[in-house]
Amino acid sequence: MKKRIKYASVLAAVVLIATCLYFGSPSLQRARALAQQDGGSAGADRLVWERTLGSVPGQMLRVTVANPGETREPPPLFFLCKVLDQNGVVVFQSARREVPARHFRYEDINFEDLGGVVGEPGTGRRQVMIQVSIQAARGGRTSNVESSLEVINTDTGATAFPIYLEDVQISSFQTSGH
């Protein structure tokens, strides 16, 4: 009986420590990626990922998308960023950006761009959800796209917190175009 209690106590301690480390880490939630069919672009892949996080004055969010262009005649990729507040209202939307093969492009979202989000008392922290939609041109694939989200200190230019889409398990698909 003492062995069972000791075993249960050790197991509970390990679970408690693992939970504390997980929730105490700077990355509380992994970015989620979803393969979606886009009815308006027959034959093209579309990848959507989202992440919730907070930003404080003096920080900027940067979304970067790279198109490795691994086929013989690689088509371009396109991406669009949206930022939603805690009520699901879009408070920022970028222009649709083209990423030529073997290039990368980025979109900066400044703290001031989040003016429609109510900040937390004391810190001014603004909690948001970022959605990034990446679409391949007709005949292209999003399965090898590389992208990241960085929280950048605007005073120093240093990356305070990087998040990579490669950390997410995703299975992209190609629509049939029917």
Q: How would you briefly describe this protein structure?
A:
This protein is mostly beta strands and 178 residues long.
Summarize the SSE layout with pairings:
Layout: H1 2-24, E1 32-35, E2 46-55, E3 59-67, E4 77-84, E5 90-93, E6 97-99, E7 103-110, E8 126-136, E9 146-153, E10 159-164
Q: How would you portray this structure in words?
A:
With about 180 residues, the chain is mainly β. The protein has two domains: about 1-30; about 30-165, Immunoglobulin-like (Sandwich), CATH 2.60.40. Helix content is about 15%, strand content about 40%. The chain is built from one helix and ten strands, in the order αββββββββββ. It has one helix at about 1-25; strands spanning about 30-35, 45-55, 60-65, 75-85, 90-95, 95-100, 105-110, 125-135, 145-155, 160-165. The strands form two sheets. Strands 1, 2, 4, 5, 6 and 8 form a six-stranded antiparallel beta sheet that branches. The relative contact order is 0.26. The model is unreliable at about 10-45 and about 165-178 (pLDDT under 50).
Q: What is the CATH-assigned architecture of the largest domain?
A: Sandwich
Largest sheet, strands/sense/barrel: 6 strands, antiparallel
Distance between the termini: 65 Å
Binned strand content: 35-45%
- Rounded average pLDDT: 74
CATH fold node name of the largest domain: Immunoglobulin-like
